[in-house]
Amino acid sequence: MLQRAVFRHQLVFRRRFRDPVGVAAILIVLVVASVSALAAGKTPSGSRPLAVSVPADPVPLAPGKTSTIRIRVVNPGTQPVTVRITGRHVDLGDNGAVSVGTSPDPIWNGRVGFPARTLTIPAQQYVNVDLTVHMPGKIAPDLYFVGFLVTPVVAPNGQVQVVNEIGSFFTIDVPGPRVRKLQATMDVDRSVFAHISIPGIVIGSHVRGELTIRNVGTTEVRFWGEVDSSSAPGGAAGQQRIDKSLIPRSHIRSFLVIGKPAWPIGFVTLRARVFYPGETESSTREIDMSKRVLVISPWVLLAVVILLIAGLWYWRRRRRRRRARPATPRKMPARSAPALTR
């Protein structure tokens, strides 16, 4: 029966496939589906990726001086791009966040020579742009941020086009003594069980925390540092380096810190050290802090619970056996009858 059903199915399929009208319909459907898939796979027109490179370190520039600072605009795309570079106001926030404004910075408006004409960048090429900066005659020693916006020039074609603008900034360092002051705190995540949190104890395989550095001074500060972790017993050690970073005044930088014990249970010590310049670049200030936490693996707690249950079960079993023993009287030793005397 099974062979007959398969044979009939093959005959029906062959008869339908021999029909030229059916074959044409199938081909039309396949062609339409292929064209639709290709149309859906196309990316929207007008997308022009760009990248901007600026000096990594602040450029020292004294009041009243003039200097040229070079930036680089990169076109990694496959089509040439025409761009326009204009000055913009930038605001720096917490953890390196940068927002680019819609208007020039009043401090640098008219003091930075941005290109007056548009620039064309060939495909997969770059263009170096030299910006002339004229420093004000009176300006306090500090770090200053010169922002700009790179905007592709798009010709209108009656369709929706995607324009990828890129904002960036470079830093100018006006030399001189200044007031720099940082504060740091390190908080360790606690384990909460039944709404109860025990300070200094973490249930898990490692301890996690957050190092928060706050700029409480009156100037911008660049800092660097490291976080060391050690374990006792075991002596396992790890180090997390903090590269030189910038904190605007009244803002913070946060870093994730992690420490792991060498054994399923042990004390983990996290030590953070933060360095930054003092009133002058030749002096250095340091913030040193540490946290010690007892880390207990959940498997250790599970093993303790299993041992307690096993011990309780064994104790109750012995107690029941003692109670089940029958109370049999002791057999007294037989006494011999006293000898008769005459």
Task: Produce the secondary structure layout.
Blueprint: H1 2-18, H2 20-41, E1 51-53, E2 59-60, E3 66-75, E4 81-88, E5 90-92, E6 98-100, E7 112-113, E8 119-121, E9 125-134, E10 143-152, E11 166-173, E12 182-188, E13 192-193, E14 196-197, E15 201-203, E16 207-215, E17 221-232, E18 237-247, E19 252-259, E20 265-277, E21 284-296, H3 298-324
Parallel strand pairs: 2-11, 15-21
Antiparallel strand pairs: 1-3, 3-9, 4-8, 4-10, 5-6, 7-9, 10-11, 12-16, 13-14, 16-19, 17-18, 17-20, 20-21
What overall geometry do the principal axes of the alpha carbons give? elongated
Low-confidence parts, pLDDT < 50 over ≥5 residues? 1-18, 23-47
Number of H/I helices: 3
The fourth-level CATH homologous superfamily of the domain at 182-299 is Immunoglobulins
Helix content: 10-25%
Strand order of the largest sheet: 2-11-10-4-8
Question: What is the terminal-to-terminal distance?
Answer: 119 Å
H and E order: HHEEEEEEEEEEEEEEEEEEEEEH
Q: Give the rounded overall mean pLDDT.
A: 83
Major β-sheet profile: 5 strands, mixed
Number of strands: 21
The CATH level-2 architecture of the domain at 182-299 is identified as: Sandwich
| CATH fold category name of the domain at 182-299 | Immunoglobulin-like
Rounded to an integer in angstroms, the radius of gyration calculated over CA atoms is 39 Å
